[in-house]
Amino acid sequence: MEINREYFDKFVEEFYEGIENFFRDKMKKEKSKKISVGKFQIDGIDYLDGSKTPILETIKENNEKEIKIYFKNSEVAPSAYSVEEIFHPFSLAALGDSLLGRKKYIKILEDFYINSEKMVLDFFKEKNIKEMEILEDDYVILAVTSENDTFALVEGLCKKIIIKEDRVFFLVKGDEEEEKLVHIVEGNAPDVALILKDKLV
After folding, report:
1. Are 59 and 23 in contact (CB under 8 A)?
2. CB under 8 Å to 150, separation ≥6 — which residues?
3. Which residues neighbour 20 within 8 Å (Cβ) at sequence distance 6 or greater?
4. How far is residue 72's CA from residue 148's CA, in Å, rounded to a whole number?
């Protein structure tokens, strides 16, 4: 698959800006500054916020006209998140599709990961390499991993892109020098887009 650096910018625009504008337009139509979404029971994987049940509960437009998303059942004062700050993009896509009533944003997201993985595989094949070291400390990546049905959040510097059994992985180094291998689909989409846009050249 041909490397198209503009693809990554277009994805961010279509997915994140698209969802944000959809939320804003829905509020305008309903003449409301907030949308209650707790009934959809979508897990936002917000364990950093101390949530026992990290369910996406409310979408609001603040005084600065920014769209913010809130969780319920937090042990601390609820934090406001922008669409790009929701750690698990599939949670955001499911939220958008639930309100829309059809599968749109999940399809955009699925296509992004499939196409991105294909671009990396083709790029590495052309270069005849199996891994690429990232020397700069510029690429922070968030990833949501799942082991034994338990979600865990991985955050750190992306230090390598690795091909393993025809799948693409990122080697993530955490604050305590701990290294974790995460599959491309587990990576937060904007982080993945930035890394590949800069490195597939």
Report:
1. yes
2. none
3. 67, 82, 83
4. 25
Which pLDDT score, from 0 to 100, does residue 164 have?
Answer: 96
Which tokens belong to 71?
């969780």
pLDDT bin (cut points 50, 70, 90) of residue 71 is: confident
User: pTM for this structure?
Assistant: 0.87
Asked if the model's pLDDT at residue 83 lies above 80, the reply is yes
Overall average pLDDT of the 166-178 stretch: 91
Query: How many angstroms from the chain centroid is the CA of residue 187?
Result: 6
Phi and psi dihedrals of 56, rounded to 5?
A: -65, 125
Q: Measured between alpha carbons, how far is 148 from 8 in angstroms, rounded to an integer?
A: 32
* Strand order, beta sheet including 56-61: 34-36, 56-61, 67-71
**Amino acid of residue 17:** E
> Which CB contacts under 8 angstroms, 24+ apart, belong to 70-73?
71/44, 71/46, 72/38
